[in-house]
Amino acid sequence: MSRTPFCLTVLVLLASGWAACQRSPTEPAGLSAQDATYYVAAEESGADNERCDGRAPSNQGNGRCPFRDFSSPRTLQLLASASGVRVSIRRGTYVLMQGLDINGAGTSEAGRVVLEAYQSEPVVLDGRNAPRELLVVSGRYVTVQGLTLQNAGGYNLEVRGGQQVVIEGNRFLANRASDSLKGDGGAADVVVRNNDFSQWDSQAIDLTAVSRWRIERNRFHDPSGAGANAIGVKFGSRDVTIADNEFTNTQGLSLGGVSSAHGNAFEAFNVVAVRNTFRNVPGFAATLYSCSGCRFQDNEVDGAGGGLRLVGAATSGVSGCAGGCQPSRDVTASGNRLRNLVGGREGPANVFWAVEATEREGLAPSSNTYCESVNGAARFWLAGDYVRFEEWVRAVPTDVSSAVAARTDQGCAG
Protein backbone atom coordinates (compact mmCIF):
# COMPACT_ATOMS: atom_id res chain seq x y z
CA MET A 1 0.00 0.00 0.00
CA SER A 2 1.42 3.39 -0.96
CA ARG A 3 2.08 5.94 1.78
CA THR A 4 2.18 9.74 1.62
CA PRO A 5 5.70 10.86 2.50
CA PHE A 6 5.89 12.36 5.98
CA CYS A 7 7.43 15.61 4.76
CA LEU A 8 4.64 16.14 2.24
CA THR A 9 2.01 15.58 4.94
CA VAL A 10 3.62 18.22 7.12
CA LEU A 11 3.72 20.69 4.24
CA VAL A 12 0.04 20.14 3.48
CA LEU A 13 -0.93 20.66 7.12
CA LEU A 14 1.16 23.80 7.38
CA ALA A 15 -0.33 25.22 4.20
CA SER A 16 -3.83 24.45 5.40
CA GLY A 17 -3.23 26.13 8.74
CA TRP A 18 -1.68 29.21 7.05
CA ALA A 19 -4.74 29.54 4.76
CA ALA A 20 -7.08 29.32 7.74
CA CYS A 21 -5.13 32.04 9.52
CA GLN A 22 -5.27 34.30 6.45
CA ARG A 23 -9.05 33.83 5.87
CA SER A 24 -11.14 36.73 7.16
CA PRO A 25 -13.52 35.64 9.93
CA THR A 26 -16.20 37.72 8.25
CA GLU A 27 -16.19 36.22 4.78
CA PRO A 28 -19.73 35.34 3.60
CA ALA A 29 -18.78 31.66 3.63
CA GLY A 30 -18.33 31.98 7.38
CA LEU A 31 -22.06 32.62 7.94
CA SER A 32 -23.98 29.56 9.06
CA ALA A 33 -27.64 28.99 8.24
CA GLN A 34 -27.87 26.49 11.09
CA ASP A 35 -28.01 26.91 14.87
CA ALA A 36 -26.54 30.39 15.27
CA THR A 37 -27.35 33.71 16.93
CA TYR A 38 -26.50 36.94 15.12
CA TYR A 39 -26.70 40.49 16.42
CA VAL A 40 -27.49 43.76 14.64
CA ALA A 41 -26.67 46.99 16.48
CA ALA A 42 -26.86 50.31 14.64
CA GLU A 43 -25.78 52.33 17.68
CA GLU A 44 -22.88 50.10 18.72
CA SER A 45 -19.42 51.52 18.00
CA GLY A 46 -17.54 49.31 15.56
CA ALA A 47 -20.62 47.51 14.21
CA ASP A 48 -20.17 46.73 10.53
CA ASN A 49 -21.92 44.57 7.94
CA GLU A 50 -18.72 43.43 6.24
CA ARG A 51 -15.93 43.52 8.80
CA CYS A 52 -17.88 41.95 11.67
CA ASP A 53 -19.02 38.35 12.08
CA GLY A 54 -22.27 39.40 13.77
CA ARG A 55 -21.79 36.93 16.61
CA ALA A 56 -21.55 39.33 19.55
CA PRO A 57 -23.96 42.04 20.81
CA SER A 58 -21.07 44.49 21.35
CA ASN A 59 -17.66 45.09 19.81
CA GLN A 60 -15.20 42.60 21.25
CA GLY A 61 -12.45 43.33 18.72
CA ASN A 62 -10.75 41.24 16.04
CA GLY A 63 -13.91 41.00 13.91
CA ARG A 64 -16.11 39.68 16.74
CA CYS A 65 -18.76 42.42 16.68
CA PRO A 66 -22.40 42.98 15.58
CA PHE A 67 -23.67 43.82 12.13
CA ARG A 68 -24.82 47.41 11.71
CA ASP A 69 -28.12 47.26 9.79
CA PHE A 70 -30.05 45.51 7.02
CA SER A 71 -28.65 47.43 4.07
CA SER A 72 -26.32 44.61 3.01
CA PRO A 73 -27.26 41.44 1.10
CA ARG A 74 -25.33 39.65 3.81
CA THR A 75 -27.68 40.75 6.59
CA LEU A 76 -30.82 40.59 4.46
CA GLN A 77 -30.22 36.85 3.96
CA LEU A 78 -29.65 35.88 7.59
CA LEU A 79 -33.11 34.32 7.94
CA ALA A 80 -33.59 33.10 4.38
CA SER A 81 -34.10 29.29 4.35
CA ALA A 82 -32.69 29.14 7.87
CA SER A 83 -33.05 26.63 10.68
CA GLY A 84 -32.27 27.29 14.32
CA VAL A 85 -31.12 30.85 13.63
CA ARG A 86 -31.84 33.81 15.90
CA VAL A 87 -31.34 37.44 14.83
CA SER A 88 -31.34 39.75 17.84
CA ILE A 89 -31.58 43.49 17.09
CA ARG A 90 -30.30 46.12 19.49
CA ARG A 91 -31.91 49.52 20.10
CA GLY A 92 -32.38 51.95 17.23
CA THR A 93 -34.39 52.68 14.10
CA TYR A 94 -33.57 50.50 11.09
CA VAL A 95 -34.71 51.65 7.65
CA LEU A 96 -35.70 48.78 5.36
CA MET A 97 -35.80 50.06 1.81
CA GLN A 98 -36.09 46.40 0.82
CA GLY A 99 -38.40 44.06 2.71
CA LEU A 100 -36.92 41.38 4.93
CA ASP A 101 -37.75 37.74 4.10
CA ILE A 102 -37.95 35.30 7.00
CA ASN A 103 -38.16 31.73 5.71
CA GLY A 104 -38.04 28.94 8.26
CA ALA A 105 -36.54 25.67 7.08
CA GLY A 106 -36.89 23.90 10.43
CA THR A 107 -38.83 20.66 10.87
CA SER A 108 -39.41 20.98 14.64
CA GLU A 109 -39.24 23.49 17.49
CA ALA A 110 -35.51 22.87 17.67
CA GLY A 111 -35.20 24.48 14.24
CA ARG A 112 -37.31 27.57 15.00
CA VAL A 113 -35.94 30.85 13.62
CA VAL A 114 -36.42 34.08 15.57
CA LEU A 115 -36.30 37.78 14.72
CA GLU A 116 -36.41 39.73 17.98
CA ALA A 117 -35.49 42.82 19.94
CA TYR A 118 -32.41 42.21 22.05
CA GLN A 119 -33.35 42.06 25.74
CA SER A 120 -36.49 44.17 25.12
CA GLU A 121 -34.51 47.16 23.83
CA PRO A 122 -36.62 49.58 21.72
CA VAL A 123 -36.28 48.55 18.07
CA VAL A 124 -38.09 50.18 15.14
CA LEU A 125 -38.18 48.71 11.62
CA ASP A 126 -39.26 51.51 9.27
CA GLY A 127 -40.08 51.01 5.59
CA ARG A 128 -40.40 54.73 4.74
CA ASN A 129 -43.33 53.61 2.51
CA ALA A 130 -40.89 51.92 0.12
CA PRO A 131 -41.26 48.11 0.33
CA ARG A 132 -44.73 46.65 -0.22
CA GLU A 133 -44.12 44.26 2.69
CA LEU A 134 -41.83 45.21 5.54
CA LEU A 135 -41.49 41.59 6.73
CA VAL A 136 -42.57 38.45 4.86
CA VAL A 137 -42.79 35.25 6.90
CA SER A 138 -42.91 31.88 5.16
CA GLY A 139 -41.78 28.33 5.79
CA ARG A 140 -42.15 26.74 9.22
CA TYR A 141 -41.28 27.49 12.85
CA VAL A 142 -40.80 31.26 12.80
CA THR A 143 -41.13 33.81 15.62
CA VAL A 144 -41.19 37.63 15.34
CA GLN A 145 -41.21 39.36 18.72
CA GLY A 146 -40.63 42.65 20.50
CA LEU A 147 -40.36 44.93 17.44
CA THR A 148 -42.07 48.11 16.27
CA LEU A 149 -43.09 47.80 12.61
CA GLN A 150 -44.11 50.87 10.64
CA ASN A 151 -44.45 52.57 7.28
CA ALA A 152 -44.70 49.68 4.85
CA GLY A 153 -46.03 50.54 1.40
CA GLY A 154 -48.60 47.77 1.94
CA TYR A 155 -48.37 45.23 4.77
CA ASN A 156 -46.16 45.77 7.79
CA LEU A 157 -46.01 41.98 8.14
CA GLU A 158 -47.30 39.25 5.84
CA VAL A 159 -47.50 35.58 6.82
CA ARG A 160 -47.37 34.06 3.37
CA GLY A 161 -48.17 30.38 3.70
CA GLY A 162 -46.11 30.06 6.89
CA GLN A 163 -46.86 27.41 9.51
CA GLN A 164 -46.10 27.16 13.24
CA VAL A 165 -45.61 30.94 13.33
CA VAL A 166 -45.66 33.13 16.45
CA ILE A 167 -46.13 36.92 16.21
CA GLU A 168 -45.76 38.19 19.78
CA GLY A 169 -45.22 41.39 21.72
CA ASN A 170 -44.82 43.68 18.71
CA ARG A 171 -46.12 47.16 18.03
CA PHE A 172 -47.80 47.67 14.64
CA LEU A 173 -48.00 51.32 13.60
CA ALA A 174 -48.88 53.17 10.40
CA ASN A 175 -48.84 51.56 6.98
CA ARG A 176 -49.42 53.52 3.81
CA ALA A 177 -52.20 51.37 2.36
CA SER A 178 -53.93 48.03 2.93
CA ASP A 179 -53.62 45.91 6.09
CA SER A 180 -51.03 46.05 8.85
CA LEU A 181 -50.82 42.24 9.33
CA LYS A 182 -51.84 39.99 6.45
CA GLY A 183 -52.31 36.22 6.50
CA ASP A 184 -52.67 34.42 3.19
CA GLY A 185 -51.49 31.56 0.98
CA GLY A 186 -52.72 28.81 3.30
CA ALA A 187 -50.86 30.06 6.38
CA ALA A 188 -51.76 27.74 9.27
CA ASP A 189 -51.11 27.19 12.97
CA VAL A 190 -50.29 30.84 13.64
CA VAL A 191 -50.44 32.61 17.02
CA VAL A 192 -50.77 36.41 17.18
CA ARG A 193 -50.37 37.34 20.84
CA ASN A 194 -49.83 40.43 23.03
CA ASN A 195 -49.34 42.88 20.17
CA ASP A 196 -50.48 46.51 19.97
CA PHE A 197 -52.14 47.66 16.70
CA SER A 198 -52.84 51.30 15.83
CA GLN A 199 -52.73 53.73 12.89
CA TRP A 200 -53.49 51.04 10.28
CA ASP A 201 -55.08 51.97 6.99
CA SER A 202 -57.58 49.24 6.03
CA GLN A 203 -57.62 46.44 8.61
CA ALA A 204 -55.27 45.71 11.47
CA ILE A 205 -55.40 42.00 10.58
CA ASP A 206 -56.79 40.57 7.35
CA LEU A 207 -56.99 36.80 6.92
CA THR A 208 -57.60 35.20 3.53
CA ALA A 209 -57.38 31.45 2.83
CA VAL A 210 -55.82 30.60 6.20
CA SER A 211 -56.59 28.06 8.92
CA ARG A 212 -55.99 27.48 12.61
CA TRP A 213 -55.05 30.99 13.70
CA ARG A 214 -55.30 32.15 17.30
CA ILE A 215 -55.44 35.93 17.86
CA GLU A 216 -55.28 36.56 21.59
CA ARG A 217 -54.59 39.28 24.17
CA ASN A 218 -53.90 42.00 21.59
CA ARG A 219 -54.92 45.65 21.73
CA PHE A 220 -56.54 47.27 18.67
CA HIS A 221 -57.15 51.00 18.76
CA ASP A 222 -57.19 54.28 16.82
CA PRO A 223 -56.73 53.38 13.15
CA SER A 224 -55.89 56.08 10.61
CA GLY A 225 -58.12 54.80 7.80
CA ALA A 226 -61.71 56.03 7.73
CA GLY A 227 -64.01 53.10 8.53
CA ALA A 228 -61.08 50.72 9.07
CA ASN A 229 -61.98 47.34 10.59
CA ALA A 230 -59.97 45.71 13.32
CA ILE A 231 -60.02 42.11 11.99
CA GLY A 232 -61.36 40.62 8.76
CA VAL A 233 -61.66 36.88 8.02
CA LYS A 234 -62.70 35.72 4.55
CA PHE A 235 -61.75 33.85 1.31
CA GLY A 236 -62.51 30.45 2.80
CA SER A 237 -60.57 30.96 6.03
CA ARG A 238 -61.41 28.53 8.81
CA ASP A 239 -60.85 27.64 12.47
CA VAL A 240 -59.85 31.11 13.65
CA THR A 241 -60.11 32.04 17.34
CA ILE A 242 -60.20 35.71 18.39
CA ALA A 243 -59.90 35.69 22.19
CA ASP A 244 -59.31 38.12 25.08
CA ASN A 245 -58.54 41.15 22.90
CA GLU A 246 -59.37 44.84 23.45
CA PHE A 247 -60.97 46.87 20.65
CA THR A 248 -61.16 50.62 21.28
CA ASN A 249 -61.96 53.57 18.96
CA THR A 250 -62.13 51.33 15.91
CA GLN A 251 -64.62 49.48 13.76
CA GLY A 252 -65.19 45.91 14.90
CA LEU A 253 -64.94 42.42 13.44
CA SER A 254 -65.80 41.32 9.92
CA LEU A 255 -66.40 37.56 9.98
CA GLY A 256 -66.73 36.67 6.34
CA GLY A 257 -66.92 39.35 3.68
CA VAL A 258 -66.89 40.01 -0.04
CA SER A 259 -63.77 38.68 -1.75
CA SER A 260 -62.48 37.51 -5.12
CA ALA A 261 -63.15 34.06 -6.62
CA HIS A 262 -62.36 30.92 -4.63
CA GLY A 263 -63.59 27.34 -4.40
CA ASN A 264 -65.38 27.39 -1.03
CA ALA A 265 -69.09 27.47 -0.30
CA PHE A 266 -68.67 30.02 2.51
CA GLU A 267 -66.38 32.96 3.09
CA ALA A 268 -65.45 31.80 6.59
CA PHE A 269 -65.82 28.65 8.69
CA ASN A 270 -65.77 28.17 12.47
CA VAL A 271 -64.59 31.62 13.48
CA VAL A 272 -64.91 32.13 17.23
CA ALA A 273 -64.82 35.52 19.00
CA VAL A 274 -64.71 34.95 22.76
CA ARG A 275 -64.07 37.10 25.86
CA ASN A 276 -63.20 40.25 23.91
CA THR A 277 -63.93 43.82 25.00
CA PHE A 278 -65.33 46.39 22.55
CA ARG A 279 -65.39 50.07 23.53
CA ASN A 280 -66.34 53.08 21.39
CA VAL A 281 -66.89 51.05 18.21
CA PRO A 282 -68.61 53.34 15.66
CA GLY A 283 -70.40 50.53 13.81
CA PHE A 284 -71.60 47.06 14.80
CA ALA A 285 -69.30 45.11 17.09
CA ALA A 286 -69.35 42.21 14.60
CA THR A 287 -70.67 41.83 11.07
CA LEU A 288 -71.06 38.35 9.56
CA TYR A 289 -71.28 37.55 5.85
CA SER A 290 -71.40 33.93 4.64
CA CYS A 291 -69.99 32.63 7.93
CA SER A 292 -70.59 28.94 8.71
CA GLY A 293 -70.59 27.72 12.30
CA CYS A 294 -69.28 31.02 13.64
CA ARG A 295 -69.60 31.98 17.32
CA PHE A 296 -69.68 35.21 19.35
CA GLN A 297 -69.43 34.31 23.03
CA ASP A 298 -68.83 35.98 26.43
CA ASN A 299 -67.89 39.33 24.92
CA GLU A 300 -68.33 42.75 26.52
CA VAL A 301 -69.65 45.43 24.15
CA ASP A 302 -69.71 48.82 25.85
CA GLY A 303 -70.27 51.72 23.49
CA ALA A 304 -70.92 50.72 19.88
CA GLY A 305 -73.09 51.73 16.97
CA GLY A 306 -74.88 48.37 17.24
CA GLY A 307 -74.50 44.79 18.40
CA LEU A 308 -74.33 42.01 15.79
CA ARG A 309 -75.29 42.20 12.14
CA LEU A 310 -75.82 39.34 9.68
CA VAL A 311 -75.77 40.53 6.09
CA GLY A 312 -76.02 38.92 2.68
CA ALA A 313 -75.56 39.68 -0.97
CA ALA A 314 -78.58 42.03 -1.04
CA THR A 315 -76.74 44.47 1.21
CA SER A 316 -73.05 43.78 0.67
CA GLY A 317 -72.96 42.45 -2.89
CA VAL A 318 -72.04 39.12 -4.45
CA SER A 319 -68.82 37.47 -3.33
CA GLY A 320 -66.46 35.00 -4.98
CA CYS A 321 -67.53 31.59 -3.69
CA ALA A 322 -67.89 28.88 -6.32
CA GLY A 323 -71.52 28.99 -7.43
CA GLY A 324 -72.22 31.92 -5.12
CA CYS A 325 -71.62 32.21 -1.39
CA GLN A 326 -74.05 30.52 0.97
CA PRO A 327 -75.81 32.67 3.58
CA SER A 328 -74.44 32.51 7.11
CA ARG A 329 -75.47 29.30 8.83
CA ASP A 330 -75.46 27.97 12.40
CA VAL A 331 -74.31 31.22 13.98
CA THR A 332 -74.39 31.22 17.79
CA ALA A 333 -74.03 34.10 20.24
CA SER A 334 -74.17 33.51 23.98
CA GLY A 335 -73.12 35.05 27.26
CA ASN A 336 -72.51 38.50 25.79
CA ARG A 337 -73.32 41.80 27.45
CA LEU A 338 -74.18 44.69 25.11
CA ARG A 339 -74.73 48.20 26.43
CA ASN A 340 -74.54 51.84 25.37
CA LEU A 341 -75.42 51.09 21.74
CA VAL A 342 -75.57 54.61 20.41
CA GLY A 343 -76.50 54.05 16.77
CA GLY A 344 -75.23 56.57 14.24
CA ARG A 345 -74.38 55.86 10.64
CA GLU A 346 -75.51 52.24 11.07
CA GLY A 347 -78.99 53.21 12.31
CA PRO A 348 -80.79 54.25 15.50
CA ALA A 349 -79.60 53.57 19.03
CA ASN A 350 -80.26 50.37 20.99
CA VAL A 351 -80.12 47.98 17.98
CA PHE A 352 -78.83 44.72 19.42
CA TRP A 353 -79.29 42.53 16.34
CA ALA A 354 -79.75 43.26 12.63
CA VAL A 355 -80.51 40.13 10.61
CA GLU A 356 -81.43 39.96 6.93
CA ALA A 357 -84.09 37.47 5.86
CA THR A 358 -81.58 35.16 4.17
CA GLU A 359 -79.33 34.83 7.23
CA ARG A 360 -81.50 33.07 9.83
CA GLU A 361 -80.77 29.39 9.20
CA GLY A 362 -79.46 27.86 12.40
CA LEU A 363 -79.20 31.24 14.16
CA ALA A 364 -79.06 30.45 17.88
CA PRO A 365 -78.40 33.32 20.30
CA SER A 366 -78.87 32.65 24.02
CA SER A 367 -78.09 33.92 27.54
CA ASN A 368 -77.16 37.44 26.44
CA THR A 369 -77.77 40.65 28.37
CA TYR A 370 -79.19 43.53 26.33
CA CYS A 371 -78.81 46.77 28.27
CA GLU A 372 -81.13 49.58 27.17
CA SER A 373 -80.09 53.21 27.29
CA VAL A 374 -83.73 54.12 27.92
CA ASN A 375 -86.36 51.72 29.22
CA GLY A 376 -88.35 50.19 26.40
CA ALA A 377 -85.87 51.25 23.72
CA ALA A 378 -84.38 47.85 22.78
CA ARG A 379 -84.58 47.18 19.06
CA PHE A 380 -84.02 44.06 16.97
CA TRP A 381 -83.97 44.57 13.20
CA LEU A 382 -85.33 41.49 11.47
CA ALA A 383 -85.79 41.24 7.71
CA GLY A 384 -86.62 44.91 7.24
CA ASP A 385 -88.59 45.64 10.41
CA TYR A 386 -87.65 46.86 13.88
CA VAL A 387 -89.21 44.61 16.53
CA ARG A 388 -89.25 44.48 20.31
CA PHE A 389 -87.68 41.68 22.31
CA GLU A 390 -90.96 39.73 22.62
CA GLU A 391 -91.35 39.61 18.85
CA TRP A 392 -87.66 38.86 18.39
CA VAL A 393 -87.76 35.70 20.53
CA ARG A 394 -90.85 34.47 18.72
CA ALA A 395 -88.81 34.57 15.52
CA VAL A 396 -85.55 33.43 17.16
CA PRO A 397 -86.75 31.27 20.08
CA THR A 398 -83.32 30.23 21.41
CA ASP A 399 -82.83 33.78 22.66
CA VAL A 400 -85.66 33.48 25.21
CA SER A 401 -82.93 32.79 27.79
CA SER A 402 -81.50 36.29 27.21
CA ALA A 403 -82.67 39.37 29.07
CA VAL A 404 -83.39 43.01 28.30
CA ALA A 405 -82.46 45.22 31.25
CA ALA A 406 -82.21 48.88 32.13
CA ARG A 407 -78.72 50.34 32.15
CA THR A 408 -79.05 50.91 35.90
CA ASP A 409 -79.83 47.26 36.67
CA GLN A 410 -77.20 45.23 38.46
CA GLY A 411 -76.48 43.14 35.39
CA CYS A 412 -75.77 46.24 33.28
CA ALA A 413 -74.00 48.58 35.68
CA GLY A 414 -70.27 48.55 36.33
Summarize the structure.
This protein is mainly β. It has 4 helices and 34 strands.
Shape: elongated
Radius of gyration computed on alpha carbons? 27 Å
**Which class in CATH terms?**
Mainly Beta
Main pleated-sheet profile: 34 strands, mixed
Task: Name the quaternary structure.
Answer: single chain
Low-confidence stretches: 1-30
The fraction of residues in strands falls at 35-45%
Q: What count of helical segments does DSSP give?
A: 4
What is the CATH topology? Pectate Lyase C-like
Category from helices, strands and their pairing: mainly beta
CATH architectural type: 3 Solenoid
How do the helices and strands line up, and which of them pair or pack?
Blueprint: H1 6-22, E1 34-40, H2 73-76, E2 83-89, E3 92-95, E4 100-105, E5 113-117, E6 123-126, E7 133-145, E8 148-150, E9 155-160, E10 163-168, E11 171-172, E12 181-184, E13 188-193, E14 196-197, E15 203-208, E16 211-216, E17 219-221, E18 229-234, E19 237-243, E20 246-248, E21 253-255, E22 268-274, E23 277-289, E24 291-292, E25 295-297, E26 300-311, H3 313-316, E27 332-334, E28 337-341, E29 351-355, E30 364-366, E31 369-372, E32 379-382, E33 385-387, H4 389-395, E34 403-406
Parallel strand pairs: 1-2, 2-5, 3-6, 4-7, 5-7, 6-8, 7-9, 7-10, 8-11, 9-12, 10-13, 11-14, 12-15, 13-16, 14-17, 15-18, 16-19, 17-20, 18-21, 19-22, 20-23, 21-23, 22-24, 22-25, 23-26, 25-27, 26-28, 26-29, 27-30, 28-31, 29-32, 31-34
Antiparallel strand pairs: 32-33
